[in-house]
Specification:
Elements lengths: L5 E6 L3 H12 L4 E5 L5 H5 L2 H26 L11 H30 L1 H5 L4 E4 L1 E6 L2 E6 L2 E12 L3 E3 L7 H4 L4 H4 L8 E5 L3 H12 L3 E6 L10 H13 L3 E4 L3 E7 L2 E6 L4 E4 L1 E4 L3 E3 L6 H4 L3 E2 L2 E2 L12 E3 L10 H17 L11 E4 L4 E6 L2 H6 L5 E5 L5 H6 L3 E8 L2 E9 L2 H13 L4 H6 L9 H13 L3 H11 L15
Parallel strand pairs: 1-2, 1-6, 2-3, 6-18, 8-9, 8-14, 9-10
Antiparallel strand pairs: 4-5, 5-6, 7-15, 11-12, 12-13, 16-17, 19-20, 20-23, 21-22, 22-23
Helix pairs in contact: 1-11, 3-4, 3-8
Length: 499
């Protein structure tokens, strides 16, 4: 190849692509970023940002409707019961307001973080159009100003993913929504059916329910959030059911139709779920069609582009990161994988991805977070471990707020193998555990670290305290009694003890 046009060519302007471009230009590489639509990708426009904005306003709506419901349950001043339908009208109005704010928020995020004007100031060249490989590290870009061919020393494919719509008879006629279209709804539906009990489905189920929508979640799995701790996920399911969400688990939709504006979903047991709106949240597939990967020698499977631990594909000088690659489909993983790929590509260092310490969070209320292995995974691998389980009653902040806060930490020799948290601040709490786990910080050091009181984060230290206390052997205590003349009881602890 003659002298390449660019040092780094990045295909896709979502979380992985923006990260790859940013790292590349800061390492001194002449960088071209190609995006077919608009920068920001799924996270900014149809994923993380709008969903979290909606969840935030849903929590406020839930609180407001709860107050109104309590008022409606009490006799009005004139001796007549208050009109309970006011809560429904309030939820509908708050939903419309939330959708307007949601669109403002994502536009603000785009303007402040992802807009071409801002990205370009860092020296990244941006091209708009469809890109496809026509040779080894040679790409043709077709945009509104015609076609051009460019070559690069290194290429990062970061084209993202798209929602998977299951092949259910009649589902296309129903007009089902996905996360790519859900946030364009203006009016709150009275009934919502969610196909999928993963993070997206569960988050949106709670969000809509809190505005007053009657929600039914359908999934072939007998549990929700199957990758998480089974006990805590089941605890969360109970809390969601208490908010009115109905679950039809262990079921699949065999047929769908719409009559007089109402969607009818026939389940495999013969029952029918009716809904005004259907949300499909059944997973994601990689965006690899039309990229000409064969021309570049890039291998791809059903799961996505095949990469090694550094993000290298099967083609020399070509890397992949984010949802288009075969691996976790999370925004923070996409950024991590992109950093690893560009570091490996430009510095030729043995940078490696770190899936063993990958945390994830389902942002319901309470949140459910996980890092490392669950107890079921450790048992399946035959690993020896013990579990520290801190219940809500020992977290004063949670007790004060009437909230849930449970922490599970799986340990061997004081080292963290995995952890699960169900709490209002689980996403922040799991971060401390992830740092400790990745850097080999033992529970004893977490126990000795001062945490602010009363905080949710203090629950992490309290869990570490439990492990530390269990390490005090009766033999050592008896020796101390003999030396110092102490006269207290000699305690022994069973695995289930919580002090």
């Amino acid at each position: 190849m003659a002298r390449p046009d660019y040092d780094l060519l990045v295909l896709g302007g979502g979380a992985a692509g923006l990260t790859a471009s940013g790292v590349g230009v800061h390492l001194g590489a002449r960088t071209l970023l190609v995006e077919r639509h608009r920068l920001g990708g799924d996270c900014t426009w149809t994923g993380c940002v709008p969903s979290k904005a909606l969840l935030h306003d849903a929590a406020r709506a839930h609180a407001a409707r709860s107050v109104l419901t309590e008022h409606a349950a009490a006799p009005a001043g004139d001796g007549q019961p208050a009109d309970a339908s006011e809560t429904d009208a309030l939820g509908a109005a708050l939903f419309e307001s939330a959708m307007r704010r949601l669109r403002h928020v994502r536009q603000e995020v785009y303007d402040e973080a992802d807009a071409p004007e801002r990205i370009g100031r860092f020296g990244i060249e941006i091209a708009t159009g469809d890109a496809r490989f026509v040779g080894e590290r040679e790409v043709e870009i077709e945009g509104e100003h015609g076609r051009r061919r460019v070559t690069a020393r290194r290429v990062v494919i970061a084209t993202g993913g798209r929602p998977v719509v299951p092949p259910v008879e009649g589902l296309d006629e129903v007009g089902a929504f996905t996360n790519e279209t859900l946030f364009e709804i203006d009016r709150r539906p009275d009934r919502l059916a969610v196909l999928g009990a993963g993070p997206i489905g569960i988050e949106m189920a709670q969000a809509f329910a809190r505005f007053g929508t009657a929600v039914t979640v359908i999934d072939r799995s007998p549990v929700i959030l199957g990758r998480d701790d089974a006990e805590l996920a089941d605890r969360l399911r109970g809390l969601l059911e208490a908010e009115g969400i109905r679950f039809r688990l262990g079921q699949t939709v065999s047929q769908a139709s719409r009559t007089d504006g109402v969607a009818h979903l026939v389940l495999e047991d013969g029952s029918t779920v009716e809904a005004d709106v259907v949300l499909v949240a059944a997973g994601r597939a990689p965006n690899v069609d039309g990229l000409g990967l064969d021309a570049a020698g890039v291998e791809v499977t059903r799961g996505g582009i095949v990469t090694d631990a550094s993000g290298r594909t099967t083609a020399r000088g070509v890397y992949a990161a984010g949802d288009c690659a075969d691996g976790p489909r999370l925004t923070h993983w996409a950024e991590h994988a992109a950093k690893t790929a560009v570091t490996s590509a430009l510095l030729r260092l043995p940078a490696r991805q770190d899936p063993a310490h990958l945390p994830w969070v389902t942002y319901t209320s309470p949140e459910l977070a996980q890092v490392g292995a669950t107890a079921a995974e450790l048992e399946a691998r035959g690993e020896a471990f013990e579990t520290i389980h801190l219940p809500t009653r020992l977290v004063d902040r949670a007790v004060a707020e009437g909230a849930v806060c449970e922490v599970k930490v799986h340990v061997r020799g004081g080292r963290i193998l995995g952890a699960s948290v169900l709490a209002e601040r689980a996403g922040e709490m799991i971060s401390e555990l992830a740092v400790a786990m990745r850097n080999g910080v033992p529970l004893r050091k977490l126990s000795d670290t001062v945490h602010p009181y009363p905080s949710y984060g203090l629950a992490v230290r309290r869990a570490a305290d439990q492990w530390y206390v269990r390490r005090q052997s009766p033999r050592l205590v008896r020796a101390l009694q003999r030396v110092f003349g102490y006269r207290g009881p000699v305690l022994s602890h069973t695995p289930g003890d919580v002090l």
